[in-house]
User: Fold this.
Amino acid sequence: MNRIILLGPVLFASVLTVLTFIEYKFLLSLGWHPIKDPTFDWPSGLALGHFGWIMSLTFIVTGLIMTLFARRLFLDLKRTPASKLGAMLMAFAGLFLAALAFTTDPTIRDYPATWHGRLHDLSFVLLGLTLFPSMVVLGFAFRADERWKSLSLYTWATLALAGPAFFVKGAAFYVFLFAILVWNEVAALRLMRN
Assistant:
């Protein structure tokens, strides 16, 4: 199971990168631009392209991997209220990541929002509302466990860097994705060593 957990961030980053290059012209047609407007229908807009099923499947698979990651954290960390709450919030974040598979609506469209587009948008908001608090709480859980103590400050620093980038759109969103994916990979590597 540990190797699967290690795969999650790498899989997400790889699919995102490859599909962005493959669907580059399509993304531009949606209004996206890698520098001027990098969050305009990206990365969710990748699910609207020719290979959209790959992005949708990636949301599901990596979301489920995140829930496995949360379970492993729960089993590995010293039992405290913080470890229980942090793992539970991380598991919910994984479920909301998987729910991003409900296909988004393009921002520029001549029809009303669809039910699946609304579910996608709601899942994105709920992902942020569970992922960030999970990292705050997990920082305290790490601090209470000698084997994880060194990751406490790193977790909070990642959140301090990634949190604002999640809300301040534009190129800062790349910072958010990178910081969160690296944090997940670092924590998964720690799980393998414990």
Summary: DSSP finds seven helices and no strands in the chain.
